Amino acid sequence: MSRDGSGLPEEVRAGAERYLMPTYARLPVCFVRGAGARLWDAAGNEYLDFLAGIGVCNVGHCHPRVVAAVREQVGRLMHVSNLFYTAPQVELARRLADCSLGGKVFLCNSGAEATEAALKLARRARPRGEVVVLERAFHGRTLGALSATPQREKQAPFEPLLPGIRVVEPTAEAVAAAVGPQTAAVLLEPVQGEGGVFPLSAELLKAAREACDRHGALLVFDEVQCGMGRTGRLWAYEHHGVLPDLLTTAKGLGGGLAIGAVVSSPRYGELFRPSDHGSTFGGSPVACAAALAALDVVAEERLLARVRALGERLRSALAELPAVREVRGLGLMVGADLDREAGPLVERALREERLVINAPRPQTLRFLPPLILSEQELEEALGRLRRLLAS
Ligand code: PLP
User: Which of 41, 50, 106, 138 is catalytic?
Assistant: First the structure.
């Protein structure tokens, strides 16, 4: 409990203002504990979490299997660098390759780092080649990843950006027309997340696959947000049966700890040569132990089937709500366009209904609940939303 009984102790708010660079517009709450789909603030108020750390806590907060794996590993060995071998790292690489593209793995610490590695792999495959990306894409904030994130307001202050990025409309025709002998890679999110939750069509993914095959370019799927069971399949590409050459993952991968990865198909496992790339913390034993436990949880077919069913229920219930114009999504990655501004609703949801959601676009609400959510928690959240939109 904070001394003033508020969910945001004044010393935390003032300390953040004084010492944290102002990169985020934070909502006025300080969370101190989480379990499953619930969070508690500093005053002991309980919240339903339908954002899961922006798609990170897919297994829920403090999943007992992740906590046990981390506790065990953190007391044994935390870090040695990649100049040596550790078993959790090799085991995670094996598991990731086996459950996706079957090639080799580069381990890092975040989604942006996974994008950077993928961009460098593309350059390795086709020196000086172009990378085709889609409008509305989001691939991260580091300079390379930002260059592949065609949003003017995010890019403009930091120009010059990486050259050789070609932005096209997210249609099958536009992608097919943009790929040629000059293309190193097509980079896309099978479900665009930050752009407002737009699942890409099977037709687009197939056109990208065909165009890449025709011209020897790499097809890269950024599953940083839509992977790790989020859409009701372990990987979103499984919905359409279109396989990429490289897959990036992060967010949900570590069950709450920071980790990212690029997985290749067997053909492209040897693109990086020694000293081409690296990361001091990449694949640290603790993060790998957490990821192995998280994978055990989300790779369960029973859980994935529930994600699909709960996702359908969430989408159909959202479509019935007043103020909702359009609902999009796959599994438990859902966006709802509104007839009004979403920002004030996000704040009111937090304050009045103790429901955590966010707005990736001015009139779009996004729902990314933990995948271990119960039916009852889903109905509870819908009840809170109904009340919110009715008042
Ligand atoms: N790629 C996608 C699809 C994302 O949604 C994000 C983050 O939202 C990133 C990359 C960047 O990940 P990170 O914030 O871990 O660098």
Answer: 138
Q: What is the CATH number of domain 10-61+307-390?
A: 3.90.1150.10
Fold of 77-298: Aspartate Aminotransferase; domain 2 (3.40.640)
Residue 47's identity, in one-letter code, is Y
Output the six-digit token pair for 40. Answer: 């508690």
Q: Kindly give the interhelix angle for 87-98 and 285-298, rounded to the nearest 10 degrees.
A: 30
154 is catalytic: no
- Distance separating alpha carbons of residues 250 and 185, to the nearest angstrom: 20
DSSP 201: P
Nearest to 235 by CA among 219, 259, 218, 252: 252
CB contact at 8 A, 114 and 249: yes
Catalytic, 251? Answer: yes
284 SS3 class = coil
Domain residue spans of the chain: 10-61+307-390, 77-298
What span, in angstroms and rounded, lies between the C-alpha atoms of 89 and 80? 11
Q: Is pLDDT above 80 for 1? A: no
H/E element, 18: helix 10-19
> Does position 191 have pLDDT exceeding 60, yes or no?
yes
Residue 19 belongs to what H/E stretch? helix 10-19
Mean pLDDT of 79-85: 98
With contact defined as beta carbons under 8 Å apart, do 268 and 246 qualify? yes
Question: β-strand 260-264 against 246-249: which pairing, if any?
Answer: antiparallel
Q: What is the mean pLDDT of the chain?
A: 97
Nearest ligand 1 atom to alpha carbon 226:
3
The answer to whether the CB of 175 falls within 8 A of the CB of 183 is: no
- In this structure, how many other beta carbons lie within 10 angstroms of the beta carbon of residue 1? 11
Best probe residue, ligand 1, of 225, 237, 247 (max atoms within 8 Å of C-beta): 225
Model pTM above 0.85: yes
Residues with CB under 6 A from ligand 1: 110-112, 115, 138-140, 189, 193-194, 222, 224-225, 250
Q: Show the tokens assigned to 131.
A: 């990378």
